Amino acid sequence: MRSGPLWVRAEIDMLFNTVEFFGFFVVVLTAFYSAPKSWRKPILLVSSYYFYMSWNPVFILLLITLSIIDFVAALLIEAAHPQRKKLALLMSLAANLSFLGFFKYYNFLASTIAALMGKPQNSFFLAIVLPVGISFHTFQSMSYVVDVYHGRQKAIRHPLDYALFIAFWPQLVAGPIVRARDFFRDLFNWKAPTADEIQSGAFLVLLGLTKKMAFADQFAKVADSYFKNVTANPGALTAWSATIAFAMQIYFDFSGYTDIAIGCARLLGFHFPVNFARPYLASSIQEFWHRWHISLSLWLRDYLYIPLGGNRGGELKTYRNLMLTMLLGGLWHGASWNFVIWGGYHGLLLAIGKLFDKFRGKIHWKLRLDPLTVAVTFVLVCLGWVFFRAANLHDSLFVLGQMFAGSKGVLLLKRWHFWLMAASLILATLEERWEVLERLPKAPRWVFVCTIVAFLFCLEIFAVIDEKIPFIYFQF
Fold it and tell me: C-alpha angle with apex 347: 342 to 352, nearest 5 degrees?
């Protein structure tokens, strides 16, 4: 995503939209359901480790090490004297944050220190390979240990059960962030998926593939061509159309990944939480964060915002807690000042929204589709996406300057891009009102079959197959 990266990345070989992945998935499904019940957990764990090792075999040692540390820490917390519980918790958090900090933030801090010393940015750089999905599995593991500490979760007694919780391949590299109580409820009380669950799971996989290959990747070609050299493409229309293209890309890319992950898990008898709820229909920034990357939003609320004090202690402390939460949430996404600014920008908008709510009364989020407020919210979100996508702060400021003070420029989006956006808007509105996608698997057979054919036709016409475009959130 960024030129002049602060860390070295390797591409994962088994992307969800590749033949290799679906071959892997068929083998896992076949082995899982044909094996004796006692073998099924080991099959899932071995397949999860294989999935992770297909990217970089070395980092399986990191995943196993963190799993062991947090597994033992939770047992110590549950058995320890009250005065020693906090020590075990702090040791667990220190281990997770140390690994995360070194791999993800060392070079960011090194470049900042070098700049303060007047040295070249790369003076203290290390050639660090960022473990894929490290932000997701560390957050998931930390939430488990914290829940055990507060008595919200019993410590898991079998190390293989805990290892599977951390490594389960559908959500390993890009979420959703699954809570321990939800995962172990399915694991310890596993039931074979019903016919409806099998049908809905397969449908979600197809829906996710369509979002990724026919929508996200088409918009990615527009956004990538612009953001790789923003100064070569001046103009307001150019900047706005490229930013909107990225807004479409990141939504369809990440929600498509989530659909595939949820669908695959459902076919294996596991139930993941909803991670997106039509965020671009939000009528405020507060509502946007109730709909976008829901599992992360809830994690930040429960494990950061509320421990900081939440909305207790007066308005000023509430605004402070919002800003700190979103600043750290932005930094979680990447080691760059752009991400810090992006998080701070959303924190400021949330604080302004909360202040505004004070004067207009309580907002009822459900089904608020006022076109004007939805459009304003979408524009505000798009302005934030500039910092998220641009290679550096200089490029971000250039793009924003072009948006509001540039020449006319050219429209980068083609007519058929607008048809794709219009179709998705209509479908999202129908989903908002009547939950049509959830009801499709139970609809008359001819309706369901026609929908499947429509998605396959969309894949045939629009799917990008001439280049390999990785999922955006695999870098986090």
Answer: 125
pTM summary value: 0.91
Q: Which residue shows structure tokens 């990217």?
A: 55
Sign of the alpha-carbon dihedral angle for 287, 292, 298, 304: negative
**Where are the chain's structural domains?**
19-190, 196-475
Burial class of 296 by CB neighbour count within 10 A (0 to 12, 13 to 18, 19+): buried
Beta strands in 29-179 (DSSP E): none
Active-site residue, from 333, 346, 394, 417: 333
pLDDT digits (tens, 9 = 90+) for 313-352: 888 899 999 999 999 999 999 888 999 999 999 999 999 9
When mean pLDDT is compared across 37-41, 45-49, 360-364, the lowest value belongs to 360-364
Q: List CB contacts of 91: < 8 A, sequence separation 6 or more.
A: 69, 73
Q: Measure the CA–CA gap between 195 and 202, rounded to whole angstroms.
A: 11
The per-residue pLDDT of the chain, averaged, comes to: 90
Q: Known catalytic residue: 137? A: no
- CA-nearest of 267, 326, 338, 317 to 292 is 326
pLDDT confidence of residue 367: 44
Q: Two tokens at 154?
A: 């019993």
How far apart CA 259 and CA 253 sit, in angstroms, is 10
Interval 241-272: pLDDT, tens: 999 999 999 999 999 999 999 999 999 999 99
Which among 203, 210, 208, 211 has a CA at the least distance from the CA of 267? 203
**Do 139 and 331 contact (CB within 8 A), yes or no?**
no
